[in-house]
Amino acid sequence: MFQSSLQSPLGPVTATSQDGKHITDISFCAPFCQQACAVTEQAAQQLLEYFNGERCTFDLPLAPTGTAFQQQVWRALLSVAYGHTASYSDIAHMIENPKGVRAVGLANSRNPIAIVIPCHRVIGANGTLTGYAGGLDKKEWLLRHEHAI
């Protein structure tokens, strides 16, 4: 396992790679492994650029672990652009499962790659900020940083 961490306005953010080739996790926590690799360093650099307002998109090899349905939802999340939001219903329609709104919400909450797979951009149908694994304060900060709210 490899990890690289940075201090962000939201506290420590750590990128993890299981194989040294793909990012498998980005979370709001301090690292527990002190061994970095090229891809985790690349992720930390891109995240730093994001927090500094210099980056709106990420170019990283991702390999989140999840069910086929979760993977489908996470791929759909990647299409929600910087500065924009989508509802859980919007995501359900994107994956051609309009009745799967609750399942989309659950998959969204299990996203292991925060910020890069932008689950923070998913809001309630009425425009309210709803659940975020990192905490609603972080979700609000990220959306304000992206000028999405």
Automatic annotation (TrEMBL):
Catalytic residues as annotated in Swiss-Prot or TrEMBL: 119
Cellular component GO terms held in the UniProt record: cytoplasm
EC number: 2.1.1.63
A Pfam match: Methyltransf_1N
Substrates-to-products reaction catalysed: a 4-O-methyl-thymidine in DNA + L-cysteinyl-[protein] = a thymidine in DNA + S-methyl-L-cysteinyl-[protein]; a 6-O-methyl-2'-deoxyguanosine in DNA + L-cysteinyl-[protein] = S-methyl-L-cysteinyl-[protein] + a 2'-deoxyguanosine in DNA
Domain named Methylated-DNA-[protein]-cysteine S-methyltransferase DNA binding: residues: 68-147
Location relative to the cell: Cytoplasm
InterPro entries reported for this sequence: MethylDNA_cys_MeTrfase_AS, MethylDNA_cys_MeTrfase_DNA-bd, MethylDNA_cys_MeTrfase_DNAb, MethylG_MeTrfase_N, MGMT, MGMT_N_sf, WH-like_DNA-bd_sf
GO MF annotation list: methylated-DNA-[protein]-cysteine S-methyltransferase activity
PROSITE patterns cross-referenced by the UniProt entry: MGMT
Alphabetic keyword roster: Cytoplasm, DNA damage, DNA repair, Methyltransferase, Transferase
GO biological process: DNA alkylation repair; methylation
Domain Methylguanine DNA methyltransferase ribonuclease-like: 2-64
Family matches, as HAMAP family: OGT
General function of this protein: Involved in the cellular defense against the biological effects of O6-methylguanine (O6-MeG) and O4-methylthymine (O4-MeT) in DNA. Repairs the methylated nucleobase in DNA by stoichiometrically transferring the methyl group to a cysteine residue in the enzyme. This is a suicide reaction: the enzyme is irreversibly inactivated.
Family: Belongs to the MGMT family.
Record's miscellaneous remark: This enzyme catalyzes only one turnover and therefore is not strictly catalytic. According to one definition, an enzyme is a biocatalyst that acts repeatedly and over many reaction cycles.
PANTHER family, sorted: METHYLATED-DNA--PROTEIN-CYSTEINE METHYLTRANSFERASE
Name of this chain's protein: Methylated-DNA--protein-cysteine methyltransferase
Organism placement in taxonomy: Bacteria, Pseudomonadati, Pseudomonadota, Gammaproteobacteria, Alteromonadales
